[in-house]
């Protein structure tokens, strides 16, 4: 069964029934156009009764007709959305049935939206019939840059009192097909879409005010976790005199943003999309870093419970992520040897050695990922998500928090304390003689440096809070320190894997010389990263 994941980049325009699509030759690198025969598309859209998918900018539909018939899950809004496509399975009828109520969402598709649905029933909410005419936009070599769809739509809500009313409209969609080609020929997708839009609008096109066709039929659900939405039971956070943002407003915007980021990676983890485990883990750690760094501003019991949940989620992800890191290092380490992958030193390492190192961690990753996804399909995981949502909705502050403090006055000192925590741990590293404990201390320094970076950057990105030049400079130094110590830890993990695998090979009477070469090569990297870390700690202390 075919499944694909891609980024959809498109712009929609409303047009009157009599408008004619203008010529687009010569616009934005378009050298020629190709017209396709019209096609009939039929689609049923699904959501929960509470519109949980719509509130989270997720669209789920079953489409027949055209070249992309199947189940589509679209995540995000605006011009760029992530689309997961799955072909119709053997249990799916070839045609849309006369009654949408008889259609059910297959388990493999339901899995992609469970982060929002969490066991609730998905029901049909709209049915659309579209007559589509497509014009392919090609470059001078006949390669497809984009396509323009001219859609005539007849749509009807399902399960609503208005379901008997059929709506009709026409729209044009400009969708990028090859962003790489467009970047080379037209200066990027934004410039390309701007150029096309400048030709379409004089022909009668108006930028669409809605993000999808189904929104025109049933409307857009309100997102309670919108970073700008009022806090539950507290009303809208007020600014202090002079316009300085309140603590509650800044923390709410930041926490809600990160909760949404975390949930956005969930379906990609389930489909094992490249780098998704890493990014999901980063989202967990960012939330933990926020709550731990600014804990004095928050109600202790509720915050502690969420931190414990996030810690369990992090542990769930760590086994797969660590295996993924080491797996991806194997061939990189061989290529990094003096002389490169074809050099004399690399030539001393048998191909069987490289394969064994890679396959062992590949298998470990697959097993860990399977355990992780299995856990993400349990009631425990849904309960964790429920608690995260409830916390972000209310964001309980410490009842003893002094009134009148701006966000900067309350939060900058706490972030500065995190710098002190990094320096205190770094001092312990310098005085430690036991190598095992020294490595443990270095790992703790790295985690504290990462916590500082996440706690500052997440607030900057979500709320635009000004932490001051000095603290921002220290955060940037902490990032470099984190990266240096991260390279060091990855090197140590790789060495441990090489050593363990060499023992397996020795028991099988295999040549183990190549393992020794790779093991020894790591000491130079570790020396460089330790020296870099010492310089960065000194710089952090001198700010």
UniProtKB/TrEMBL annotation:
Pfam families linked: CHAD, CYTH
Organism: Citricoccus alkalitolerans
Name of the featured protein: CYTH and CHAD domain-containing protein
Domain (CHAD) ranges: 240-543
InterPro entries from the UniProt entry: CHAD_dom (IPR007899), CHAD_dom_sf (IPR038186), CYTH-like_dom_sf (IPR033469), CYTH_domain (IPR023577)
Lineage, top ranks: Bacteria, Bacillati, Actinomycetota, Actinomycetes, Micrococcales
Domain of life: Bacteria
């Amino acid at each position: 069964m075919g499944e694909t994941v891609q980024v959809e980049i498109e712009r929609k325009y409303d047009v009157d029934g009599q408008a004619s699509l203008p010529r687009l030759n010569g616009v934005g690198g378009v050298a020629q156009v190709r017209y396709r025969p019209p096609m009939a598309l039929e689609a049923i859209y699904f959501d929960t009764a509470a519109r949980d998918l719509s509130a989270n900018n997720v669209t789920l539909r079953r489409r027949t007709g055209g070249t992309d018939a199947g189940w589509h899950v679209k995540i995000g809004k605006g011009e760029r959305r992530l689309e997961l496509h799955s072909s119709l399975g053997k249990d799916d009828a070839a045609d849309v049935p006369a009654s949408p109520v008889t259609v059910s969402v297959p388990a493999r598709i339901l899995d992609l939206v469970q982060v929002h649905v969490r066991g609730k029933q998905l029901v049909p909410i709209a049915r659309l019939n579209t007559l589509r005419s497509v014009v392919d936009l090609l470059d001078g070599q006949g390669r497809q840059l984009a396509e323009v769809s001219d859609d005539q739509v007849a749509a009807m809500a399902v399960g609503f009192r208005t379901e008997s009313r059929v709506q009709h409209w026409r729209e044009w969609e400009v969708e990028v097909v090859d962003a790489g080609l467009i970047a080379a020929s037209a200066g990027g997708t934004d410039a390309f879409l701007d150029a096309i839009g400048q030709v379409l609008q004089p022909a009668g096109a108006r930028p669409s005010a809605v993000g999808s066709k189904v929104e025109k039929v049933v409307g857009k659900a309100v997102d309670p976790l919108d970073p700008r939405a009022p806090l539950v039971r507290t009303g809208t956070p007020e600014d202090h005199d002079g316009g300085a943002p309140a603590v509650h407003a800044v923390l709410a915007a930041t926490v809600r943003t990160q909760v949404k980021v975390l949930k956005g990676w969930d379906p990609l983890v389930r489909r094992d999309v490249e780098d998704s485990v890493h990014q999901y883990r980063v989202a967990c750690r960012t939330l933990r870093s926020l709550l731990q760094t600014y804990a004095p501003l928050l109600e202790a019991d509720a915050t502690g419970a969420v931190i414990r949940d996030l810690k369990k989620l992090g542990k769930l992800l760590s086994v797969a992520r660590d295996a993924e890191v080491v797996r991806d290092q194997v061939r990189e380490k061989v290529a990094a040897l003096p002389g490169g992958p074809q050099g004399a030193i690399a030539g001393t390492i048998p191909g069987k050695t490289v394969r064994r190192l890679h396959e062992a961690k590949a298998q470990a990753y697959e097993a860990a990922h399977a355990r992780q996804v299995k856990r993400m399909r349990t009631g425990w995981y849904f309960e964790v998500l429920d608690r995260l949502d409830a916390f972000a909705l209310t964001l309980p502050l410490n009842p003893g928090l002094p009134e009148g403090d701006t966000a900067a006055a309350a939060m900058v000192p706490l972030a500065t304390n995190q710098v002190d925590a990094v320096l205190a741990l770094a001092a312990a590293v310098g005085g430690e003689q036991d190598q095992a404990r020294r490595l443990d201390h270095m790992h703790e320094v790295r985690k504290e440096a990462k916590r500082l970076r996440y706690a500052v950057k997440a607030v900057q990105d979500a709320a635009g809070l000004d932490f001051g030049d000095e603290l921002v400079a220290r955060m940037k130094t902490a990032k470099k320190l984190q990266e240096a110590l991260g390279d060091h830890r990855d090197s140590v993990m790789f060495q441990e894997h090489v050593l363990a695998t060499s023992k397996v090979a020795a028991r099988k009477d295999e040549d183990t010389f190549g393992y020794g070469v790779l093991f020894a090569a790591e000491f130079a990297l570790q020396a460089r990263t330790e020296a870099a870390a010492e310089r960065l700690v000194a710089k952090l202390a001198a700010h």
